[in-house]
Amino acid sequence: MTEPRGRVLALHLGVIAALFAAQFVLSEYHHTNVARIMVLAAYALGYNLLLGYTGLMSLGHAMFFAAGMYGAGLSIYYLGFGAFAGFGLGVLAAAGLAALFGLFALRTTGVSFLIVTMMFGQACYLAILYFNEITLGDQGFILSGRLPEALVEPGVKYNVALAVFAVCFLVSLGIVRSPLGRVLVAIRENEERTRLLGYDTWACKLLALVVSGAMAGAAGAAYALLFSYVGASFAAILHSIYPLLWTLLGGAGTTVGPLLGTGLMFYLVDVTSGWTSAWLFVVGGALLVLVLFFPLGIMGAVRARLAPWLP
Amino acid sequence: MSNTPPATTAGPLLETEGLGRRFGGLSAVEDVSIGVRRGEIRAVIGPNGAGKTTLVGMICGRVRPSAGRVRFEGRDVTGVPAWKRVAAGIVYTFQVTSIYGTLAVRDNVALAAQRRLMGSPGAWLRLDEAALAARVEGALHTLGLDVHRDRRAGDLPYGHQRLLEVAMGLALEPRLLILDEPTQGLAEHEIETFCERVRDVASRATVMLIEHNMKVVLRLATRITVMDRGRVIADGDPASVEADPEVQRAYLGRR
């Protein structure tokens, strides 16, 4: 029990250290890409906590990302909030939305839950467009000029993105390896059984949803701060599908999978869109290969075949 | 003398009062009033569809009664959700084996055992792993599952899965352990071992046993409740129940 524990911690701290070191060797182009990947990976980490460990599939997570993005963006744009306060408000807005949403949506499970998340997600997207006068949703707005000078620096951007990712990464590792994490997996495997072991499964699922929403919100708020743009397109359903794909590609129910999946997909799109305008074909083909040969995702396959100690 | 025992130990451990459940027009259980004393092994028997599983479902909180009350240790638990009743000591093991097939045998039992260690909010993030392991080993040992601790639970033979189900119940430190047809699908020699294990368990907890195998019932039960078409038609010690003419007509005679 103690031996893999050290290995697990070493692996996770090693990933963070490698990302930190990478900023000194990456070219300017990849430097920006990796910063973006780390923010989006935080989004995927939150998604994975819900899908991979609790067994709840959502198609509405963009609403939490957007809550973080607009929570930060609107408070900075209209109220003159600072970057930190805006970020904090974004995370709170997403967590609050997740709690409120959970009170309704967690009355359902399985496919019904999936559909309810999608409907709520779409409702949020349309609400952003409907209140266009306030949200400036259809055009979007930029935050440049309203943020601290330092945030323009690529080096600062990179390390802020890394900090957001690292916190989400370690929090999700901590949860997964805690007694609470074991109960979440139990709910994923057999909820009725878990209830009859004396666990309030509804409350556990709500907690997982709130943490998941908060991470999505942290990613959304960080995205607004670092890339300076806030727009309704981030609340659209495509943006709910992305974290699902990233998580499945990297390996649902693995702590490292979301980062790997996000990075791979990002570069897959990046490279193929340079070759051809039909890049979605290539992405689709890659996903087919994945589903056929690695149904557990990359890290899922690694865990099954090489390293059963991976969390 | 003035030395009266506390109220909780005076009455029966479990009491139902006019308990009933209708599904649409069908009355699955009707007007059941029984009492189970501490230390009993209570068998509940009756033909298929007699309402046995529905009755224990209402006792453990899986099924909401449409009439009547359930009292446990003198406290009315009728409206208490199932997961809270587990905390009070009412533990149900499933008729259709319900284990975590993809997890190791040990982890299955650990999920049950850790429930008892998670009293404080902090324990949800970190708990005493040594104490947990000791409890898990204890439950595995009682059911003779020690050697299988690292196997995937879903790979165990069916008989062992039934035992694992009981081990999980035991790790919850029940005051009332409800076993729903535990020997269904077990081979003859497995039933032998199983009966011994249940006797072990009964020294620590009151047991309620739904069972079709009359040999098992007569070997284990200290008291028998017979149900037919949703109603209790007899309730007493094994000898008097066996002799009851209505029981013979309704149940034993049909076999």
Describe this structure in words.
The complex is a heterodimer of chains A (311) and B (255). Chain A has 14 helices and 2 strands. By secondary structure, chain A is an all-alpha fold. Chain A has one domain. The radius of gyration of chain A is 19 Å and the shape is globular. The longest helix of chain B is centred in the last third of the chain and has 15 residues. Chain B is globular. At the A-B interface, helix 8 and helix 9 of A face helix 3 and helix 4 of B.
Which key phrases capture this entry?
heterodimer; A: about 300 residues; mainly alpha; 2 strands; about 75% helix; about 0% strand; B: about 260 residues; alpha/beta; five-stranded antiparallel beta sheet; 10 helices; 11 strands; about 25% strand; disordered N terminus
Short description:
The complex is a heterodimer of chains A (311) and B (255). With 311 residues, chain A is mainly alpha-helical.
Overall mean pLDDT of chain B stands at 88
Report how far the terminal alpha carbons of chain A are from each other.
Answer: 12 Å
Chain pair forming the biggest interface:
A-B, 21 and 33 residues
Detail the poorly predicted runs of chain A: none
Order of strands, main sheet of chain B, comes to 7-8-9-4-10-11
Task: Please outline the major beta sheet of chain A.
Answer: 2 strands, antiparallel
Elements of chain B, N to C (H/E)? HEEEEHEEHEHHHEHEHEEHH
Low-confidence segments of chain B, ≥5 residues, pLDDT <50? Answer: 1-8
- Strand tally of chain A is 2
Please provide the count of β strands of chain B: 11
Amino- and carboxy-terminal Cα gap of chain B: 52 Å
- Beta-strand percentage range of chain A: under 5%
**Continuous helix count of chain A:** 14
Strand order of the largest sheet of chain A: 1-2
Major β-sheet of chain B, in short?
A: 6 strands, mixed
Structural class of chain A: mainly alpha
Rg value of chain A: 19 Å
Shape of chain B: globular
